[in-house]
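EI: anyone free to look at a 305-residue chain?
SC: sure, send it
EI:
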Amino acid sequence: MDLRQLELLCALAREKHFGRAAKNCNISQPAFSARIRQLENELGVPIVQRERSFQGLTTEGELVVTTAQRILAEARTLKQSLSQMSKGLAGHLRIGAIPSAMPMMSLIKNPFCAAHPNITISLLSLSSVEIQLGLEKFDLEVGVTYLSKELTGNIETHELYQEEYSLIHNANGPLKDRKSITWQEAAELPLSLLTPDMQYRRIIDKTFEELDCHIVPHTQTNSITQLLHETRFGNTSSIVPISLIHVLRNLDGVVAIPLSEPRLINKIAMVIAKREPGSPIALEFFKHTKRLDVQKLLREASEKS
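SC: here you go
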């Protein structure tokens, strides 16, 4: 048994498909399947339920994957610690962020990358549930998500900024000159919104429900960028965080109208899992973030736009 076998197995558990897992690991599917069977033979237990395609993991396989995820995480941490001792921080950091926070992430990560040029970053747009699972399964080192009761487990959090909301509307639409709009008025408009698996959408739905407003979105997407396109080129409006408007410079064709009555505020936080040993890169990134005034950075970005 070696680390490569464990990497392949974790990829299979993540992708739930032999072909996709093999492609992501840059290995042919026959070679991939052979390595998984070799691991099963070495451990003396079936790991994968097979018919013509991947059917899931066996009970033994679930245990092996959980252990493999921990071993791989500790191996990465060891490499980072050794690198830090010899030449400073170096390695790869995996961050998952909710879609509404993605445009803001450059304000945080770019100064960190400038200070640590030997660190590379993967930044993924994920739902709050996917971020929680990613931290638990060692697929992520850092998350940026809502500071809410949905966060569970042994984690450390740091509030980054407070999220408020605005209606975005076509620049030539009938509401283009409005200075504010109520949630009840917004409920009467054709809306494009994020999909229900996103916590941002659940927050919006709950707000409308509390106001006895029933909405049926015209379009649903998991992409913030697509929401902007739907508003700019379509016949719908949308609801987005004001922070998004602060950091996006090119909003031609769209006007932002603050939402009021009620004024809705949610906290966005940086999250890492508490582990021993912890990832040196993740811990340093967390310390770096705590030194920043993200709310101020957002205001400055708004003034420059």
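EI: The CA atoms of residues 169 and 175 lie 7 Å apart.
SC: 👍
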